[in-house]
Amino acid sequence: MAFDILLALMLAPLPSLAPAETPRQWLAGDHHVHSRYSGKSVDGVYVLGQDGIYTLPENARKAHQYGLSWVVMIDHGGEGLSKLRYEQTYPELVEARAAVPQVIQFFGMELDTPGGDHSSLIMPIDSTEAGTLRRLESAYAAYETRDPARDDPERMIAMLEEMNDLTPRPLVIANHPSRGAPSPDGYGRHSPASLRRWNDTAWDIAVGMEGAPGHQGTSLKKGASPDTLRKRGYYVHSPTYGGFDTMTARLGGAWDGLLGEGRRFWITATSDSHRNVADGGEDFWPGQYAKTWVLARHDPADVLDAIRRGRMFVATGDLISELDVDINGAGLGDAAQVRVGETVTISVRLRDPDVPNPNGNRPEVKRVDLIMGAVSGQARDHNPSTHIVRRFTPADWQREGEVITLSYTFTVGHDSYVRLRGTATDELEPVADPLGEDPWPDLWFYSNPIFIETN
Predict the structure, then answer these.
(1) Distance between CA atoms of 247 and 269, rounded to whole angstroms?
(2) Phi-psi sector, 436: left (phi>0), alpha (psi -120 to 50), beta
(3) Among 244, 243, 270, 267, which Cα is nearest to 255's?
(4) C-alpha closest to that of 294 among 318, 273, 322, 271
(5) Cβ atoms within 10 Å of 305's Cβ, excluding its own
(6) Whole-angstrom Cα distance, residue 366 to residue 138?
(7) DSSP structure string for 75-124
(8) What is the CATH number of domain 324-454?
(9) What residue ranges do the domains of the chain occupy?
(10) Hey, what's the signal peptide range on this chain (predicted)?
(11) Strand 171-174 to strand 206-212: parallel, antiparallel, or no bridges (unpaired)?
C-alpha cells in the first residue's frame, strides 16, 4: 500500500507541453526502445541487463542526442514481469522524464502477443498508465504465466476489446512482422489476416506495423566474423529489403493489400535498441539510424493522435527530415474528397538536410517514387493494381537549399491511395539485403498514404 501511495504522488497528470494553437511540426521518435529491464532468466532467476543493458535515463539522453522528440520505453514480457515493470521499471521512467524533459517518454511494453509475434503496446501518459498496463499485461500477455493456453489469438482479440473501453486508448503496433516468416513469400505469426482482424476489432488501437525493423547494425558488430554475422533485423528466411520488412517493401505486397481495402493501417521505423554497436551489440541508439516522423505539437496526446491518424513518414540515415504532401488540402493519413474525372495535383515538399548524419555522411535523395494503388474494399493479401506512377529525379524537381519540391497532375478515375518512397541508392526497387551489408549507404524513406475518395 505504501508503494501505491508513493506512486500515485509521483503520477500527477503531466501538463500539456504545447498549447492547442501551436502549429504542428515534424517530430522524430521511436516506439521500440529496450532497457536493462529486458533481462533473461538465469537458473530460474530473472536477471536484469542480460539482454538490454541501458538505464531508462540513458536511453532518453541518447534519444535527445540523436534528435528525437518522443520515445516509447518498452521491455520484454515474461513470467511475473508485470509486477517488476510496475514496481521497478516505471519509477525509473519517472526519473528519466525528470532528467530529460525535452523528450516525451511514453510507458509501454513489448507485448508477447497472444497468438502473434511481438507488438509495441503504448500507453497514453496519465495518472493511470502504470496500473492499467499492469492489469492488461497480467491478464493477457502470453508469457506472463507458464500456461500455454494464454498464447491464443482469441486472447488478443479480448485484450483489444477491453482496450476499446479505455479512455484514453492505448496503441498497438506489430513489431518486425516478417522476422519469423519461412520465406519472402510467406508470413510469420503476424499475418495480414491477423493484422486485419486486430484492426477490425480496434481500428484506432491496432493501427500499424514496423515497416523498418530494428537491429540494423548487425554488420557493424565488433569482432563479428562470417560465421557469427546475422542478417539485418535478425531476418533469417525472409530478408529485409533496403532495411524494410518485405510486407512493406514489396510493391503491391501485404501493406498495399491492406491499403487497397481502404484500411487506415500505417508503418513506422524503430531501433529495437538493446545494445549499441559501440558497446559490442548490433543495434543503433534511438534515432541514430531510423526515425519515425510525426506531424504533431510537442504534446503527448497529439503525438499519439498523429500515430493513430497516420500523419507520419519514416526515414533511415536522416535521408530526409520533413515531408509535406497535399492533394486538395489532404495530407498524409487523410482522405481527399474528389469527383470522378476531376483533375488534381499532388504537391510534395521535402527537406534533404545538408548536415552530417550520425555516421558523418551527407546523403542525398537521388529519386522519389510516386506510388498509387486502387481501393476496392476487397480483403486480400496483395494489391496487383499498385504501381509506380512516376519516378522523379533531380531533373524533375525544384530545389532551393535543403528543400525539394515537385508535383504531379492526374485525372481521378476511382477510389485509390497514393504514397511516396525515396532513396539515396540507384536501385529501382529495393533488393534483398545480403549478409554483412553496411546499412549506411542503403537509405530510404517511405510515406504513409493519402486516400482519394470519389463522390
Answers:
(1) 13
(2) left
(3) 267
(4) 322
(5) 18
(6) 49
(7) -B--TTHHHHIIIIIHHHHHHHHHH-TTSEEEEEEEEE-TTSSEEEEE--
(8) 2.60.40.10
(9) 2-11+24-319, 324-454
(10) 1-20
(11) parallel
**Residue 449 preceded by cis peptide, ω within 30:** no
Residues of the chain falling short of pLDDT 70: 1-20
Which residue has 483533375 as its cell numbers? 343
Q: How far apart are CA 375 and CA 386, in angstroms?
A: 10
Q: Which pLDDT score is estimated for 21?
A: 76
Distance CA 205, CA 196 (A): 12
CB contact at 8 A, 52 and 35? yes
CA neighbor of 56 nearest in space, from 74, 40, 70, 82: 74
Phi, psi of 11 (to 5 degrees): -105, 30
Distance of CA 444 to the CA centre of its chain: 15
Residue 308 is which amino acid? R
User: Within its chain, how far is the Cα of 126 from the centroid?
Assistant: 22
Please, which residues have CB within 8 angstroms of residue 44's CB and are 6 or more apart in sequence? none
Asked if 271 contacts 66 with a C-beta cutoff of 8 angstroms, the reply is no
Q: Are 119 and 173 in contact (CB under 8 A)?
A: yes
Q: What H or E segment, with its residue span, contains residue 61?
A: helix 56-65
Q: What is the DSSP string of 251-272?
A: TTSHHHHHHHTT---EEEE---
Render the burial of 25-40: b for 16+ CB within 10 Å, e for the rest: ebbbbbbbbbbbbbbe
User: Residue 112: beta bridge partners?
Assistant: 118
CA-closest candidate to residue 56, choices 13, 108, 7: 108
C-alpha cell at 243: 532495411
Q: What is the pLDDT of residues 40-85, one digit of tens each?
A: 999 889 999 999 999 999 999 999 999 999 999 999 999 999 999 9
Of 409, 406, 441, nearest to 426 by C-alpha is 441
Beta bridge partners of 76: 110
Note the pLDDT tens digit of each residue in 276-331.
999 999 999 999 999 999 999 999 999 999 999 999 999 999 999 999 999 999 99
CATH code that applies to domain 2-11+24-319? 3.20.20.140
Query: Max alpha carbon distance in the chain (Å)?
Result: 68
Q: What is the DSSP letter of 340?
A: T
Read out DSSP for 173-211?
A: EE-STTTT-SSTTS--SS-HHHHHHHHHH-TTTEEEEEE
Mark 201-218 as b/e (b = at least 16 C-beta within 10 Å).
bbeebbbbbbbbbbbbbb
